[in-house]
C-alpha cells in the first residue's frame, strides 16, 4: 500500500473508531460530526473528505459491534446440514441479536444512508478484514449484502436447490418473513410493545417457522396479487 493510501486508510479508521467510542460511552443519539472530529483530533471539515454524512460514520462504527452476532450465526450454522434448517436458525440468530440491540441493527440494516454506493460492507471489510477470519465462506456473500430482501433470497436459494421449498413460493416466503421481522423489530425499536426480547423472539420465530414449514399458508402468488 502506498503512503498516501495508507494515510487515508488510517484516517478513515480514526474517525470510525472515534464514532464507536462515542456510541459506547454516550449512545447513538449523541453522535455528531463535531464530537467525532474532536475525539479524533481533527476539524469537522476533514471528516467530510472521507464521509458524506454522519449516518455513514454511524453505519461503519456499528459494524464493529456486530462481531458477537456474526460469530453466533457462524457457530449456529454448524449444528444443522439442511439448507432450510440453516435458514431458520439464521433467522433465529438475527432476531435474537436484533431484539437485544435494536439501535445497532437499525444502524446497520434499516437506517437511511442516503445516496451511497451499495458496496459499503465491502468497504468496511477491506479496512477491517480480521472481522471475517472465522466466518464460514458460504455465508460471506449473505453478510456482505445489506439489502435484506437480497440477503434472504440468497439464503433461500440453497433450500430451493435442495428441493425443500417450491420455486413458486420462494419469493413469497422471503417477503413475508422479512415483513414479520420488520413489524416486530419496529415495535421493539420504538417501544411500541411491552414484549421483552425473549418473548419477541419466540413470537416472531413461531410465525416465520409456520410460513417456512407450511407453504400451504401462502395461497397467493404474484399473478393473483396483481389481479386485485
Spans of at least 5 consecutive residues whose pLDDT stays below 50 are 221-228
Strand content: under 5%
Number of domains: 2
Q: Number of helical segments? A: 13
Distance between the termini: 58 Å
- Rg over C-alpha atoms, rounded to the nearest angstrom: 20 Å
Helix content: 55-70%
- How many runs of DSSP E, i.e. beta strands? 0
Q: List the helices and strands in order.
A: HHHHHHHHHHHHH
General shape: globular
The main sheet comes to: none
Overall average residue pLDDT = 85
Derived from helix and strand composition plus strand pairing, the structural class reads mainly alpha
Q: In summary, what is this structure?
A:
Keywords: DNA-binding. The protein is an all-alpha fold. It has helices at residues 3-26, 33-40, 44-47, 54-63, 67-77, 83-100, 102-110, 120-127, 140-144, 148-161, 170-189, 197-213, 222-226.
Amino acid at each position: 500500500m502506498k503512503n498516501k493510501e495508507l494515510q487515508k486508510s488510517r484516517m478513515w479508521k480514526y474517525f470510525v473508531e472515534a464514532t464507536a467510542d462515542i456510541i459506547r460511552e454516550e449512545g447513538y443519539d449523541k453522535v455528531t460530526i463535531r464530537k467525532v472530529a474532536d475525539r479524533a483530533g481533527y476539524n469537522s471539515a476533514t471528516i467530510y473528505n472521507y464521509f458524506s454524512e454522519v449516518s455513514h460514520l454511524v453505519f461503519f462504527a456499528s459494524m464493529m459491534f456486530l462481531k458477537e452476532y456474526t460469530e453466533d450465526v457462524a457457530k449456529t450454522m454448524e449444528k444443522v446440514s439442511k439448507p432450510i434448517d440453516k435458514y431458520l436458525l439464521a433467522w433465529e440468530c438475527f432476531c435474537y441479536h436484533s431484539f437485544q440491540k435494536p439501535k445497532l441493527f437499525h444502524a446497520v440494516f434499516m437506517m437511511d444512508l442516503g445516496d451511497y454506493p451499495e458496496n459499503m460492507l465491502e468497504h468496511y471489510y477491506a479496512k477491517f478484514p480480521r472481522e471475517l477470519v472465522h466466518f464460514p465462506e458460504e455465508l460471506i456473500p449473505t453478510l456482505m449484502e445489506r439489502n435484506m430482501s437480497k440477503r434472504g433470497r440468497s439464503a433461500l436459494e440453497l433450500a430451493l436447490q435442495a428441493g425443500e421449498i417450491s420455486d413458486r413460493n420462494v419469493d413469497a416466503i422471503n417477503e413475508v418473513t422479512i415483513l414479520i421481522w420488520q413489524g416486530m423489530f419496529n415495535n421493539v425499536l420504538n417501544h411500541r410493545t411491552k414484549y421483552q426480547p425473549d418473548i419477541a423472539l419466540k413470537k416472531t420465530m413461531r410465525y416465520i417457522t409456520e410460513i417456512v414449514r407450511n407453504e400451504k399458508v401462502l395461497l397467493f402468488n404474484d399473478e393473483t396479487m396483481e389481479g386485485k
